[in-house]
Amino acid sequence: MLPAAAEGQELLPGTPSRTALGAALYRAAHQLVDRPLVLDDPLALPIVGEEAERALRAGADPRVLPGSAALRAFVAVRSRYAEDALAEGHQRGVRQCVILGAGLDTFACRCRLEGLRVLEVDHPATQAWKRQRLLAAGIRLPAGATLVPVDLEREVPWGPLSRAGLDRAAPALIAWLGVTPYLSRPAIAAVLAGVGRELAPGSELAFDFAARSDGDGRAALAARAARAGEPFRTALEPAEVEGLLRQSGLEPVELADAAALNARYLAGRADGLALRGGHLARARRPAGAG
């Protein structure tokens, strides 16, 4: 499994992210217990490992239980949201995608969008762990995918991405999920500014953020993250996010709250699966930007 600190302790330098494992387990749990699927990911179970898969199938992992349904829904919806944005971008001619804070995301290994180059950015320790998980599960990283080690709290990713093959003269779609709550506000602003200044016009960003107004839903998730040794650092209200985007030279395309996302992805379900909080956003560097 994951060589990290015990619950409630600080992570040691060089250990992979426990919250990345948690997100992967929620995606895996969604494959087992929710119907219809919001996110159809046949690699979600293999990548978490046989021991974790057995626990999920046996109901021994709380992520498959009804009390975890709202968070399970959010993890599935945010991945689906980003993948929908990627598909739309591909139709517009975008042929490169960057996943910031990829964790155990499997999109690159199951992508069927012709000619799409996928570059995954994450902490070096987390990426080393992911390579181990891919090997153990027999999942091949395709030729069009590249892992780019970057610590986003200490380094902006654009230089490493360029060295790894990102064409900054062509538009890219950036998926940034499950990351902003764990970063400082300056680190968030630096990433947004990079999308607005370092990437080509027409580039788009899809991301999630936690708002103080999310109430109980945010509080429950923050408590779990803190117990895992990776506490939330930043909460942003939608108006603050819109301001940060515009300051970074980005045009907000959408700021979607739980109600809007429930209506789009979870309406009319017999199982009652629904979000209780959370926000997703899309923004674009406008055409003609210098």
Could you characterize what this model shows?
With 290 residues, the chain is an alpha/beta fold. It has a single domain (18-284), classed as 3-Layer(aba) Sandwich (Rossmann fold). 41% of the residues lie in helices and 13% in strands. The chain contains 11 helices and 7 strands. The chain has helices at residues 18-33, 44-48, 50-57, 69-91, 107-110, 124-137, 158-163, 185-198, 216-227, 238-247, 258-265; strands at 96-100, 117-122, 145-149, 173-176, 204-209, 251-256, 279-284. The chain has a 7-stranded mixed β-sheet with strand order 3-2-1-4-5-7-6, with helices on both faces. α5 (107-110) links the parallel β1 and β2 (117-122). Mean pLDDT is 89; it is low at 1-14.
**CATH topology, what is it called?**
Rossmann fold
- C-alpha Rg, in Å? 18 Å
CATH arch. level architecture: 3-Layer(aba) Sandwich
Give the helix level as a range of percent: 40-55%
Q: Give me the side-by-side strand order of the main sheet.
A: 3-2-1-4-5-7-6
Structural class based on helices, strands and sheet pairing: alpha/beta
Number of H- or I-type helical stretches: 11
In short:
The protein is α/β, with parallel strands linked by helices and 290 residues long. Helices cover 41% and strands 13% of the residues.
SSE blueprint and pairings:
Blueprint (H helix, E strand, L loop, with lengths): L17 H16 L10 H5 L1 H8 L11 H23 L4 E5 L6 H4 L6 E6 L1 H14 L7 E5 L8 H6 L9 E4 L8 H14 L5 E6 L6 H12 L10 H10 L3 E6 L1 H8 L13 E6 L6
Parallel strand pairs: 1-2, 1-4, 2-3, 4-5
Antiparallel strand pairs: 5-7, 6-7
